[in-house]
Design brief:
The longest helix has 14 residues. The strands form 5 sheets. Strands 12, 13, 16, 17, 18, 19, 20 and 21 form an 8-stranded mixed sheet that branches. The protein has a 7-stranded antiparallel sheet with strand order 5-4-3-1-9-8-7. It has a two-stranded antiparallel ribbon with strand order 2-6. The mean pLDDT is about 90. α7 packs parallel to α8. With about 300 residues, the chain is α+β, with helices and mostly antiparallel strands. It folds into 2 domains: about 130 residues, Beta-Lactamase (2-Layer Sandwich), CATH 3.30.450; about 160 residues, Rossmann fold (3-Layer(aba) Sandwich), CATH 3.40.50.300. A hairpin with a 2-residue loop joins β10 and β11. It has 10 helices and 21 strands. The two termini are about 35 Å apart.
Length: about 300
């Protein structure tokens, strides 16, 4: 487990909960993927793809009766910390349902929503927080980088997998390697998870020739990168809307290569989605990579050979 990564998150938690997790981390086999705080509910961690509860002594249990109960005050304290005591400054992120904190860790937010014109404006009461631990694994893409870089060319690639299988972690290492091999790269990092920008500087290693637009809608970021930074390759995590697809089609039409991710179980299922059909009709991607997690070794991600599209 990367204890430095967990320590970055502990800074945003109430001391009572931080102390319990510090005790838990003394067991080196524990690989924490997420930490969930729910008002008046058990303190929960995600470990190796499964959820379990934390006891009052910092141990693990599957029994709710033995679990540490998180108070509404502790959830409120954590929320104020992730907002750095300024909810207004993070309003746009809160509207999207999450805040990205230093280190690229993403905190999901749920609670009593205040809506305006049918859209969430803010959360009046926060009832639960989900801290997803960002993992940077240098060298994760070593086994597939030769299928992505072909001499002086980059093959446009779509990475497919179910949630929490390591798409973003793999995409980040591909970005680092492609950039360090001399290709100008642009990253549309709308959720702040690829580069984990903090005070204008990436806290993750994203390569020597990478330009990042952080926190903007992917579609706008892609168009701005094209206008201002002349990238050879554009990276986008999680294609999720018609606007994302439209921007990537424009980029591909200029000759820029695209490396992106999307949720899915197989190529056929992804290709059947209505909003993604233009991507495949335009033949934007020449190949796909399917991810599967090997839970016997928590840091590993297994993937098939690249599938030609």
């Amino acid at each position: 487990m990367n204890k430095q990564r967990i320590s970055e998150v502990l800074h945003y938690l109430p001391q009572s909960i931080g102390d319990l997790l510090n005790r838990l981390m003394s067991d080196e086999w524990i690989e924490i993927e997420e930490i969930r705080l729910r008002c008046n509910a058990p303190l929960t961690v995600g470990v190796w793809g499964e959820s379990c509860f934390i006891t009052n002594t910092g141990g693990i249990t599957n029994y709710e009766s033995d679990a540490y109960k998180v108070t509404s005050e502790e959830v409120g304290t954590a929320f104020r910390k992730i907002c750095e005591n300024s909810v207004y400054a993070h309003m746009e992120e809160i509207r999207r349902g999450y805040i990205t904190i230093k280190g690229g860790h993403r905190v999901g937010i749920c609670g009593k929503a205040v809506c305006e014109e049918g859209r969430i404006k803010m959360f009046k009461e926060v009832s639960s927080l989900n801290f997803r631990i960002a993992h940077q694994i240098i060298g994760l893409a070593d086994g597939i980088i030769d299928t992505i870089i072909n001499g002086n060319e980059v093959n446009s690639t779509l990475i497919i997998s179910p949630p929490q299988m390591g798409k973003t972690t793999l995409l980040r290492d591909i970005l680092r390697q492609v950039s360090d091999k001399g290709f100008k790269c642009g990253a549309a990092d709308d959720r702040g998870e690829l580069a984990a920008m903090y005070q204008g500087m990436p806290t993750n290693m994203v390569g020597a020739q990478t330009d990042v637009i952080d926190g903007a809608p992917k579609s706008e970021a892609v168009e701005m990168l094209l206008r201002t930074m002349s990238p050879k390759v554009i990276f986008s995590d999680e294609i999720a809307s018609d606007a994302d697809v439209a921007a990537l089609r424009v980029a591909a039409g200029t000759g820029v290569k695209i490396i992106a991710t999307t949720h899915g179980d197989c190529v056929e299922e992804v290709m059947s989605r209505k909003f993604l059909k233009p991507v495949f009709e335009d033949k934007i991607f020449s190949q796909a990579i399917l991810l599967r997690r090997d839970f016997s070794t928590p840091e590993s991600v297994t993937y098939t050979k690249a599938v030609k599209l």
